[in-house]
Specification:
Radius of gyration: 12 Å
Number of strands: 0
Strand content: under 5%
Order of helices and strands: HHHH
Distance between the termini: 34 Å
Helix content: over 70%
Largest sheet: none
Number of helices: 4
Length: 71
């Protein structure tokens, strides 16, 4: 993957992570910071960063639900 594609992928991933954190905060009734911490401590986060998992193709709410199930 060339650098431009890698940069675009990172931008899109960060946008998706933001949406996942918002969904988590609403579903769990916690602050955005707490939701961010929960997400980054999860195995789901690791899988989202691994392109081979295909998790990045799922919706933000689906990924948030995966984090909740993992808890």
């Amino acid at each position: 993957m060339n650098n431009d594609k890698r940069a675009v992928r990172q931008i899109l991933l960060w946008q998706q992570i933001g949406c996942i954190v918002v969904a988590l905060a609403h579903k769990l009734g916690v602050s955005y910071k707490r939701a961010f911490d929960i997400f980054y401590a999860s195995d789901t986060c690791r899988r989202l960063h691994d392109e081979r998992s295909g998790l990045y193709l799922r919706s933000d709410r689906y990924v948030a639900d995966e984090v909740i199930l993992e808890m």
